[in-house]
Amino acid sequence: MKAKKYKLKMSTKLSLVYTILATLIMGAAVTFFYYYYMNQVRQENISNLLQVTESVMSKVDNSFETMDQVTIDAMKGADFAKNWTLWNSDERTQQITDYLNDCMISSYKTKSSIRRVSIYNMKGEYLCTGTADVSKTAVRQRAESMLRTYNMKEATSKVFLGDSIDFWYQGSGVHVVTEIKPMKSVNSEVLGFIEVQQNILYMKENCSAQLNGCDVDVAVVFDNEKNAFYQSLSSTHISELKLYTLARQYQAIREEDGLMIGMASSNRIGCKTLILVSSSVLNSSANGMMRLFLFVVVILILNYSSKYGDGS
After folding, report:
1. pLDDT tens per residue, the chain (312 residues)?
2. 42, 118, 193, 248: least CB-packed within 10 angstroms?
C-alpha cells in the first residue's frame, strides 16, 4: 500500500517536473518565435508601406503633370501669345476672344479629370471655360494675391493650390485642386495668369490606398506650405503643422505616437506624400497568428500534463 502511494507521489512529482520543463521549453520557443515572426512582419510591413507610398506619390505626380501639360497645351498655339497681348490692349476683338477660348477648350478635351481652364489679367478681366459666376473685383484681388504671396517672376514659376471650392463658381459646391502660372510680356512683366482646375475626386482616387485590407490616411504636403495640399485623415488625429514638420524632417519610414509613417518625395516639384497607419493595424494579422499559436501551445501543454498525470 505504501509502495503504491509512494509510486503515485513519484508520478505526481515527475508529472510536475515534466510539465515545468515542457512549459519552459515551449515558453522559450514561443518567445523566440514571437520576436522572430514579429521582426519578419515588421520588415514586410515596412516594405509594403514604402511601395504603397511610392505608388501614391507617383499617381499624385501624374495629376500635377496633367495640369501642367494643360497649361502648356493651352498656350502653345503659334498665335496665342500675340492674341493674349492684343486681348489685354485696346485692340481686343471677338475674334481674338474666340481664339483664346478655343485654345483653352482644346487643351483639355481629352483629359476628363480637368474641370476648367481660365485666363485673367491684373485688372480682373477674365476668360473661363464652363460656368462662371465671379466678379471682376474678386478676380483682380486673386491676381494681386498671387503676386503678393508667391514669387511669380521666375521663368518656371507656378503654384499649386490644395483642396478648395471652385473659385469661379462657388455656388456649385465642387471641390478642386488648382495650378496657376503667370503669363508674361516679352519684358517678363506679369500680365496675368492661367489657371487649371482638377476635380478633387481624381485626387481622392489617386490617394486611396490600403494596407492589410484597411484604408490608410494620406497627406500631400508642399515643402514651403504649412497647410496640407491634400489630406484624408479619417483615423489619425494629427495637425497640419505636424504634417508639415514631419515632411520637413524627411525619413522614408518613421514611427511616432503609435503610427508608422511612410514618406516619398515628388519627382516633379517640392512636395511629399505621407501615408500614416496605426501600428496596431499593421500588426493585426501577426497578432492573430500569434494568438492562434499560443492557443495551440497551451493545448499541447495541457495534453502533456494530463498524459503524465495519469501515470502513463
Report:
1. 545 555 556 666 666 666 677 677 777 777 776 677 677 777 888 888 899 999 999 999 999 999 999 999 999 877 998 999 999 999 999 999 999 999 999 999 999 999 999 999 999 999 999 999 999 999 999 999 999 999 888 777 899 999 999 999 999 999 999 999 999 887 888 999 999 999 999 999 999 988 877 788 999 999 888 888 999 887 667 888 888 888 888 889 988 888 889 999 998 888 999 999 887 766 655 555 566 666 666 666 666 556 655 544
2. 248
Query: Each residue of 197-214: b (16+ CB within 10 Å) or e?
Result: bbbbebbeebbebebeee
Burial 52-70, CB ≥16 within 10 A → b, else e: bbbebbebbbebbebbbeb
Which amino acid, one-letter code, is at 229?
A: F
Q: Where are the domains of the chain?
A: 64-203
Q: Assess contact for 18 and 308: CB atoms under 8 A.
A: yes
